[in-house]
Amino acid sequence: MKKVSKKVKFLAAALGSLLISSTAFAQSVQDTPFTLDNSAVKRATAGQFDTDSDRVNAKDIFDLERSFFSAGYLGNLNNTAQGSIATDPITGKINNGIQGSFGVALPAGMYLGIAAAYNFNDSANYTTDKDGNIVNNLNNKWTIGSTANVTAAFRINDIAALHYNFQLTGITPYSVNQTKDAVGNNYNTYTHSGTWRHEIAAAIKFGEHKLTIPVSVTFNAMNTKEKGSKYLNTGTANGKIDVDNVNYAEGDGIWLGLEPEFFLSLPAGPMTGINMGLFLNAKLTHNVGKNGTFAENTTGTGTYTKNEYKTTQKAEVVGLGVWASFPMEWSLANDQVSLAMEPQINLEFAIDNTYKMEQSLNGAAATVVNNNYGRDNLMILPSIELPIGTLWRPVEWYELRFGTALLLGAEITIDQAKDINGKANKTTGYNTMSGIAGFFGMGFIVTDDFNLDLYAEASQLSFLNMSFGGQLTYRFN
């Protein structure tokens, strides 16, 4: 099951750079994402980079006044797409990425901020002969293995702002291979294994209070398509079969998300206020199985036939939940040391109810596929997060930032399969989980016009999971 929750939105809004390198903490139990809320981590560990680009990435630009430009480098010592250093020190590579952002102060109190991060990993490898045929099995015309995160923020006035965020993630979001030979084969194979996500948000500020309402559409593309002509043995002579098909893997579909947040300014001792929010994500489409025209060898004799498939499965897939966090700040040692923490509580529910999967072949009556009559699945995920961080500025031009983030949680699953007579066996599962991550950064401040920031962080306190980066920032006017 592919679940899109508020964690995804926080990764986009508050730590866009780490989507390109790594998440601050990630632990998967039974294929369920269990990721630390990085927005709280950033606030409580004083951030990896300067506040200007941080605020654009976090879509929080109400306090930005000066124009700026920044550019940075992102790295990760554990890039599974290129090979893990832990298991393959020769092919394991640093996951390189770049980040850039700028902000422009406009007349009448308006402000425009753009932030983008991109990890380059695209490729193509194909060989053709003099007739344009593909040879030597080198037929990859184009593969997108890159990831991207782009945020645009526009402040209309001191009260209202609009934001847009785009993410492209996945091991291989898009790939196309072409088969073309002298026999007459000429078809393309398209492979999708990635996520395209668009989010639009409106923010309204009431004094020190702020309401943000993001709406997102997420395309989970997990499928393989074929289109073109195949010349194959069809029984009596070589013949052409025109193919136009798609085979959907589990999780393919479109999600619609609504995730409002509200910050209530409520100073009480070290506590500055309360962040709270809810999220509702619903899967609009549920694509499954084979659909379209296939050329298939069903007998094992080398004879191919043309088959038309249509596969359907009704489903109700919904994720919902609530969360609240409590930011706290302390100033120590004559304001040379700042301490911050933001405990957060989360409660999530994931509902995944599917019905029987039916498939028709060449227009015949639909039949149930592999006795798949569906299942009802409920997942409950309570968790507590505690990011703690400190900033030490011994002199005006230099500062150190370090901290840790702790997580405790549980996963409760209730799964009931279905058979031809209705509901069958029910399985209940329970798992507890915990995690820790470490953060370190330093900044060099040259007046208010120039910053150099460096950071490193370790997921689960493992060097091989460490991500790192650096950024330069220039401020104008």
Task: Describe what you observe in this structure.
- Mean pLDDT is 81; it is low at 1-38 and 79-94.
- The longest helix is centred in the first third of the chain and has 9 residues, at 6-14.
- A hairpin with a 4-residue loop joins strand 8 (147-155) and strand 9 (160-180).
- The radius of gyration is 26 Å and the shape is globular.
- The protein contains 4 helices and 26 strands.
- The strands form 2 sheets. The chain has a 24-stranded antiparallel β-sheet that branches. The protein has a two-stranded antiparallel sheet with strand order 2-3.
- It has helices spanning 6-14, 16-21, 38-44, 51-57, and strands spanning 67-76, 78-79, 83-84, 97-105, 111-119, 122-128, 134-144, 147-155, 160-180, 186-206, 209-233, 238-248, 253-258, 261-268, 271-283, 289-296, 305-325, 328-332, 337-341, 344-361, 367-368, 375-395, 398-419, 422-446, 450-459, 466-476.
- The chain is mainly beta.
Report the major sheet: 24 strands, antiparallel
Q: What is the helix fraction of residues, given as a range?
A: under 10%
Instruction: Please state the average pLDDT score.
Output: 81
Order of helices and strands: HHHHEEEEEEEEEEEEEEEEEEEEEEEEEE
Shape: globular
Q: How many E-type strands?
A: 26
Are there runs of 5+ residues with pLDDT below 50, and where?
1-38, 79-94
In terms of DSSP E residues, the strand content is over 45%
Structural class, by secondary structure, is mainly beta
Tell me the distance between the termini: 50 Å
Computed over alpha carbons, the radius of gyration is 26 Å
Number of helices: 4
